[in-house]
Amino acid sequence: MPELPEVECAVRYLREQLTGSRISKVNVRWKRIIAAPAVDRFPSLLRGLVFRTVSRRGKYIVCEMTDRLGADRFLISHLRMSGRFAVVPNSSRLDKHEHVIIHLSDGRQLRFRDTRKFGRMYLVEDREQVLGKLGLEPLERDFNAAEAYTLITQYKSPIKVVLLRQDIIAGVGNIYADESLWAAGIHPLTPANRLDEPSAKRLFRELRRILSRAIKTKGTDNGDNVIHGGMYSPKAYGRANQNCLRCSALLKRILVAQRGTTYCPRCQKKSYFTQSNRKLS
DNA sequence: CAAACTCCCTGTTAGC
DNA sequence: TGCTAACAGGGAGTTT
Q: Which of A261, A221, A245, A216 is nearest to A4 (CA)?
């Protein structure tokens, strides 16, 4: 599932492919993907817009567009579980999971493919309408660990829950939450406000290191499959009942706020619990 | 106000 | 082998 690094790779690909291109026609094949405005107005409002640039905010892909009069419009997409973009020639065979087709005036098409149909697209005049509540960007140069520590100590919920909250730190999903907690040696159920400053700083350092490295390894993947199939291999996520790569203890799987969570009971010490948790199988 | 639950979807996998 | 049912998971919305 795409998280910050996968979205960043998609953004770089789209920026390369789309900058300067004009939309000539739009075909929506699964209406629920269009979150704003009303689906019936979406194609006509997009027609004629030119891609200025593409950037990322959290897990959102932000296409900055200009209309014929030079006014700003924002085409913002969220890949959710299984969404991915591809820019292909018109002649490319239509896949049954390609739900939004954006025709470009140069004979190519931007296609949004999403098997689970959870992805969302927004066309708005004010980007804050979609992005307004997002939290800190963990890879920004101005990300400050001391500041972030002060921020997370406001929450008594488990640190993993805090990491997953997009309004606190943007872009972290289940994979990189488990990975950074494992790397920092912090139990996922530790209440955020019980973390000491060194632990929190270690967590942020590991988070940034892991996110950056994931972007690099996905980036070196062959160019036309930038979103998935990267080289990043998780050390904790998805490795329940396998040996910890640091201490060789058996990794454990629990539920934290309804999300599958894998951690090492030896390296990530159990300290405090704010909620009951139950074992999975 | 926060935590928990429900829903949206379908490919994959476990179970029979 | 072939079928069905459970499951995963981000985020919005609803309920407790």
A: A216
Mark the ranges of chain A whose per-residue pLDDT is less than 70.
219-230, 271-281
CA A94 to chain centre: 26
C1' (B4) to CA (A107) span, angstroms: 49
Å from the A207 CA to the C12 C1': 26
Q: Say which residue the tokens 């907690």 belong to.
A: A181
Assess whether A259 carries a catalytic annotation: yes
Please identify which of the residues A56, A59, A84, A160 carries the catalytic annotation. Answer: A59
Which candidate, A113, A195, A98, A105, places its Cα nearest to that of A155? A195
Q: Which of A3, A8, A98, A206 is catalytic?
A: A3
A191 is catalytic: no
Predicted confidence at residue A220, as pLDDT, reads 52
How far: A246 CA to C14 C1' (Å)? Answer: 42
Residue A115, CA distances (Å) to A30, A84, A119 in order: 11, 9, 9
Task: Record the pTM.
Answer: 0.91
Closest residue by C-alpha to C1' distance, nucleotide C8:
A260
Q: Is A2 a catalytic residue?
A: yes
What is the spatial distance between Cα A124 and Cα A69, in angstroms, rounded to a whole number?
16
CA-CA-CA-CA torsion sign (A164, A133, A43, A48): negative
Q: Which amino acid is at A214?
A: A
Give pLDDT, residue A60.
Answer: 94
